[in-house]
Design brief:
The chain has 23 helices and 23 strands. By secondary structure, it is α+β, with helices and mostly antiparallel strands. The protein has 4 domains: about 60 residues, no CATH class; about 40 residues; about 180 residues, Penicillin-binding protein 2a (Domain 2) (Alpha-Beta Complex); about 325 residues, DD-peptidase/beta-lactamase superfamily (Beta-lactamase), CATH 3.40.710. The chain has a 5-stranded antiparallel sheet with strand order 12-11-23-22-21, with helices on both faces. Strands 2-10-18-19 form a 4-stranded mixed sheet, with no helix packed on it. Strands 1-8-9 form a 3-stranded antiparallel sheet. The N and C termini lie far apart (about 140 Å). The N terminus is likely disordered.
Length: about 675
């Protein structure tokens, strides 16, 4: 009997929908024919009879299928594909899902707002104002030269720039993730650019806070400024975004890691052309930490105004003033003249305006308060007196007859600015007696003298000859110079003479100090011998509930010399105000102790630097001040009025007008 598998769907009949129904045979006839053929086949096998057609049909029915190999290959391929699908969808399903999402989602970093700066009373010194930048992703740069030319021309038209400029800007940064084509854009221009830029693949308009500094004068040197990161910056700080800004000077630079904050991210769904369709999610940036400075904004204004007037009215060129809190080392005020506006380094300001500052012959970018090196003049004498008292080469009652008014060494005469007569140390400080201090340094009559080695050692104890370590950057200040025989031999190729020691003892010769060094040393005399490290920042404020951090004052030397020695020196500085060269301060309701100085800057003695250093109140000191007016003349007449205005402002007293100094003889 024939198996039912002989009925095939391909046979004519009801399986052909296009066959006319009248031409259909009865299906049983088809089956009958098949049965008959099967019988013939059996006959042929048993008797050898039958037809060729029956043999062919049998072979077709019983022989192995012709497509068995193809079927095996198909099964193998199906198994391989199945195994591959299992691997892609199950084993690595999560990874591939993430990759697929990346193909249609784009994450863009967002800059964190930079931390703010406040003065000691909470007055803001800087603001973050909204600003916009046009940013291009080089990965979206067209592949063919023709497409690139079209893209560049369209982009140049939108930005109102030349095609060559835009092309150079893009093609010089193809290795970077992003390139900023224009920055410092205000809100009005940003609105006009927004719609036009959406037609350009890979070009976006990004919002970022812009730094704006307040109107407190002198902030340029103290606070500094920020600028766009460079390739070198990114090598040193790979955590920064290519579009970030970095502190370049002042507090902005030295505390940049606190001020930077942590960048956020925004995830967008984009189309095939790279255009944003809708936001998917975002991680908000974390704002940088804000800082509280020791600066007093009101005192800073008065310091800048008084210094500027003294320079102008005395036909001077430049100068500096520093005010420190003697109890902590906080910078209450710091001004260097000429000043500069740190807003000039904003991206919104034209490069020509910045170039004028960079090429100004007055060098306004130099912070003379910490980088200017000057002969100290007589302001060094209190520290020489402290050294002599500490080494017991004199006592507070030692009296020296200086009636001759000069000391002759060989063919060299060392003169005084006037004849003082018999003098002890307090009076010598008050009257700025050169002969007395020549004797303290190099010896004269009954005073043996310190000698240059001991003198250098004590001056270095007070911080002269080395950087103070102020938190404005390690390379921002100079060290000054306390010379000695080794230095002179190495640098000048000359021998050291007694006259070199004499000159050093009165702040002339090769001795060089900075205004900050002198103020710091004066503060150490005022507070009883503690040498604080000057600091600009006193508190780092917290973010996100963090309580913040009050910085602990750093003490570089806890006892410069014995307190009894400094008591004598303070009395001498107070006598300078009561009966000496700083008598105008004696009318103030606040007791002041001070020392004037006039430093020669040329052999002709026709051009001198005007110095003044002081502390107040005398009994319980709070502040120390140093002022220099370059080429200003006598210290008591030019620099002293600036310090007087500072003291008056600090203690809320009426300000005394700054007037031109009368001609006088320098001390």
């Amino acid at each position: 009997m024939v198996k039912r598998s002989l009925v095939r769907p391909s046979d004519r009949g009801i399986f052909d929908p296009f066959l006319p129904i009248t031409s259909l045979k009865r299906i049983e006839n088809e089956f009958q024919a098949d049965y008959e053929l099967a019988d013939q086949k059996n006959d042929y096998r048993n008797t050898g009879t039958g037809t060729v057609d029956s043999l062919s049909y049998e072979e077709r029915i019983e022989s192995p299928p012709a497509f068995l190999g193809f079927r095996l290959v198909s099964v193998v391929i199906a198994l391989i594909l199945g195994w591959r699908l299992v691997g892609l969808q199950i084993t690595k399903g999560a990874e591939n899902f993430s990759r697929a999402e990346g193909n249609r989602l784009e994450t863009q970093p967002t800059l964190a707002p930079r931390g703010l700066l406040y003065d000691r009373k909470g007055v803001p010194l800087v603001q973050n104002r909204p600003s916009f930048s046009v940013v291009f992703r080089p990965a979206e740069y067209p592949r063919t030269e023709a497409d690139r030319a079209t893209f560049i021309n369209r982009l140049a038209t939108v930005l109102d720039r030349s095609s060559d400029e835009v092309r150079q800007r893009i093609e010089s940064s193809l290795r970077r993730d992003q390139v900023t084509l224009e920055e410092g854009i205000d809100r009005n221009r940003a609105l006009s650019l927004e719609l036009r830029l959406t037609e350009l693949t890979g070009v976006t308009l990004e919002k970022a806070p812009s730094r704006y500094y307040g109107d407190v004068p002198g902030l340029g040197h103290l606070v500094g400024y920020i600028s766009k990161v460079t390739a070198e910056d990114l090598k040193k700080r790979p955590d920064l975004l290519p579009t970030a800004f970095l502190g370049k000077s002042g507090v902005e630079a030295s505390y940049d890691e606190y001020l930077q904050g942590i960048a956020g991210a925004e995830t967008l769904e984009i189309d095939a052309l790279g255009r944003a369709i809708r936001p998917i999610g975002s991680k908000p940036p974390t704002a940088g930490k804000s800082l509280v400075l020791g600066l007093d904004s009101d005192l800073q204004r008065v310091t800048a105004q008084a210094l500027g007037e003294a320079i102008q009215k005395n036909n001077a060129t430049s100068g500096a003033a520093v005010v420190l809190d003697v109890r902590t080392g906080d910078v209450l005020s710091m001004v260097s003249f000429p000043m500069f506006d740190n807003n000039l380094f904003s991206p919104a300001v034209s490069s020509s305006d910045r170039q004028r500052i960079l090429t100004d012959p007055g060098a306004p970018l130099i912070n003379r308060a910490i980088a200017g090196q000057y002969p100290s003049g007589s302001t060094i004498k209190p520290f020489v007196a402290a050294a002599a008292l500490a080494e017991k080469t004199i006592s507070d009652s030692t009296v020296l007859d200086t009636s001759e008014g000069k000391i002759v060494v060989g063919q060299t005469t060392f003169s005084d600015w006037k004849t003082h007569g018999r003098t002890a140390v307090r009076q010598a400080i008050a009257e700025s007696n050169n002969i007395f201090f020549f004797a303290l340094g190099g010896g004269y009559k009954q005073i043996p003298g310190l000698g240059i080695d001991r003198l250098k050692s004590y001056l270095e104890r007070f911080g002269f000859g080395s950087a103070t370590g102020i938190d404005l950057g390690s390379g921002s200040e100079t060290k000054g110079l306390v010379p000695n025989p080794d230095w002179k031999k190495r640098i000048k190729k000359e021998s050291w003479f007694l006259g070199d020691t004499y000159n050093t003892s009165i702040g002339q010769g090769n001795l060089l100090v900075t205004p900050l060094q002198l103020t710091r040393a004066t503060a150490a005399i005022a507070n009883g011998g503690t040498l604080y490290r000057p600091r600009v920042v006193k508190t780092i404020l917290g973010t996100g509930g963090d309580a913040g951090q009050d910085l602990v004052p750093v003490i570089d030397r806890s006892s410069v010399v014995d307190g009894s020695v400094l008591t004598v020196v303070r009395e001498g500085m107070r006598q300078t105000v009561v009966s000496g060269s700083a008598r105008p301060f004696n009318v103030l309701p606040v007791e002041v102790a001070a020392k004037t100085g006039t430093a020669q800057t040329s052999k002709s003695k026709d051009k001198t630097h005007s110095w003044f250093t002081a502390f107040a109140p005398y009994a319980v000191p709070e502040i120390a001040i140093s002022v220099i007016v370059e080429g200003g003349g006598e210290g008591s007449a030019v620099a002293a009025p600036v310090a007087r205005n500072i003291i008056e402002r600090y203690f809320n007293l009426p300000l005394t007008p700054i007037v031109p100094a009368p001609p006088s003889t320098p001390e």
